[in-house]
Amino acid sequence: MASTKGRVAAESTIFRRTLVAVTVMRMFLAASDACAQAEPAQPGAGTPPPAVAAEGAASGADRDGRGSAKGRASSAAITLNSVEVTANRRREPAREVPMKVDTLSSDALQKSGATKLSDYLSTQPGVGFDSGGGPGQGTISMRGVTAGKDVGPTVGVYVDDTPLGSNTVSGGGAALALDMGLLDLNHIEILFGPQGTLYGAGAMGGLLKYVTNQPDTESFFGNVGTTFSSTWHGGLNNTTNVVLNVPLKSDVAALRIAAFNNHDGGYVDATGAAAGTRINRSDTTGVRASLLVTPTRKLTFRFTATIQNINSNGQNYVDYGMDGRPAYGALTKLQDAQEPYHQSNQFYTANAEYDFGWARLNAISAYQSLRTSTTLDFTPFYAPILAAGGLDVSTVTPNSSVGTNKVTQELRLTSPGNRTLEWVAGLYYDHEHSNTLQTYRATAGGRSLGDLEKLGYTGSYQELAAYGDVTYNPTSRIALTAGMRIAHNSQDYRQETSGLLVPTPLSAPGASSDTSKTYMFTASYKLTPKSNVYARVASGYRPGGPNSMAVSAVTGQLIAGNPTYKPDTLWNYEIGYKADLLDNRVSVALSAYDIEWHDIQQYGAVDGVAQLVNAGNARIKGFEASGVVRPTSALSFNASLAAIDAYLTEGAPSVGARAGDRLPNTAKFAASVGASWRFPLGPWSATASAAERFVGERHASFAGATGSPDFILPSYAVTDLQLGVDLRYASLSFFVRNLFNREGLLSANTSYVPLGGNVWASVIQPRTIGVQLSAPF
């Protein structure tokens, strides 16, 4: 109790000081506003708050990522649509990309106190995120293209030009989206809509791309940063990061090394036999080394090694009843056994680039090793079932370990830009090998009863693909693009089942293969040099695969049920408008889309067994808008919204879903608004920002589902504040996340409710107050 009072008192003091700082800021603002109004607006002056990301928001860092205070100030002067992105595998302004593209500045995210993927994506209307229990366990969705987490991914994840994560369910699929710390990132690109032509399988809803800083062959420099914060009902959090750039030979070679450590103090308590406080505290550490070698002006090599480890003491779920109320009190769950989570992620890339003049060749090789271990507490609902069968237990804890090795190779030719005819062509190879072991363990009176059941899955996935797109520019205003990708994948699978509840060990193989084609057509027209309209038609797919099997309680044999499931596909029809107007005082991006999704992969009942099936079709219609208004060079306002109408057009009896049911985890409306003020503070430059984000009501499942009953996730709103000062040799930022300490549910797992369990709900982080300091050298 004393420690809790101490934390509350400390937070209150920090909060009061923050309010005083904001008051002082307003005094300076009033003094400087008259001068600011007399100044003409500079291009892009006044950046949006980091908590409100808009299309093409400035990256906030120099391309080499030096991160000096002066460099950050100058790079902030970028208009909404002018920041360069690599969505089409070539660097170009976001305004000229015929699709919706958002960027998140790494520097701005750090200043706002963001440390994990749930923080990065929380500002993005139209992007859904199921945290899955904590860092490293998340599932991303875009534009409502989702039917749950225990399936293959619908959003691709890249680091630079390298795809990461498994395409298969046995390899973690959608449930292990890369949750990379802000490890010397330049920015994050978010591409909305199918990206299958250039980015391949799984990117049917969109793509998340981490863009890292490249080594600089000219200058020796570095950066040291640290963040301290306190969370209500939780502990102290801290992050430390270091970046060092070392030129080895001028214009020829450079080495860049970055490392970070993040400690999250947690905020969820537990009651029960394994009661505790702040049980979801976690530590994430990472290091990256990147070597750039340019032997000639035409030839470049870049080698990168990244290692990241996540260790969580427990899950961030909170127990809720089906009535929508906390079952054991706010931010509390029932826990009879501890639930640790561990993840080790390593990936190594080599990118060789040669400029022929008529085209640029990239040969990109990558290797990823991903290892995870998850323990959950199933005692509350499995112990009574086992007791009814004559087996008294104290705890039941399934442990799931996943190991995936992934090798990819890509060869890509890219023509020069600004030509009448532009093109991209490539070949892609992917080979994955996954091992998954699920072990159900039980104890009685402190004594282990051994393994009740062991389910082992060994699988391999191999894909070969060829792709290309051609852009024809008949005039300086018109661009017409057509693209296609053809991919063939084959999968092998073996399941091993044993344990006390399996009288005879069982083994069964499985296999599948399929060939898929994706297409993309766009047409864009420049209304002015800084505005255009576009139309886009694109398709996407997710690979099929072999199904796991269950042991029959009657015969003791494996039930084949549905041996394989096929790919699901979708078509996206989109129109949009992007512009920088009124001498760059106004920037706007609008898009509307209509998606038809067929043969949706989801879990359904087959012969009494839950397996993946192709069940139902869906239609998703939506509208997206983002914009920035700059009345003066010191003041800017921004807003972003997404309206999504996502529903089934064909029911799925095996799932319990009916035509007209809304797709899960998709808000009909989400929005964010913000304002940013830039003003002098003595000899320094300061920026104050405020942002409000809103997420509408969502369904956790389909209305008629029985295996995972529907649960309403209420709407919520969050307010963030930030005050940053660029000092002469450093930058200082004070932030408050979730200012009014509002409650909000990110996602909910209801699959244990039919067994007598509660709803496992992921909640937004309570009010967090902190300070961030960054010093370049």
From TrEMBL:
TM ranges are: none
Q: Where is the signal peptide?
A: 1-36
Which residue range or ranges hold the TonB-dependent receptor-like beta-barrel domain? 311-739
Protein's cellular compartments: Cell outer membrane
Keyword entries, A-Z? Cell outer membrane, Ion transport, Iron, Iron transport, Membrane, Signal, TonB box, Transmembrane, Transmembrane beta strand, Transport
Q: Which Gene3D superfamilies match?
A: TonB-dependent receptor, beta-barrel domain
Q: Name one Pfam family in it.
A: Plug
Q: Locate the TonB-dependent receptor plug domain: which residues?
A: 94-206
An annotated GO cellular component: cell outer membrane
Q: Which PROSITE patterns match?
A: TONB_DEPENDENT_REC_3
Topology versus the membrane, per the UniProt entry? Multi-pass membrane protein
Asked whether the UniProt record includes Lipid biosynthesis among its keywords, one would answer no
Chain segments carrying region Disordered: 39-75
> Which GO BP terms apply?
iron ion transport
Family, per entry: Belongs to the TonB-dependent receptor family.
Q: Which PANTHER family did the record assign?
A: FERRICHROME IRON RECEPTOR-RELATED, TONB-DEPENDENT OUTER MEMBRANE RECEPTOR
Q: What is this protein called?
A: Ligand-gated channel
| UniProt lineage | Bacteria, Pseudomonadati, Pseudomonadota, Betaproteobacteria, Burkholderiales
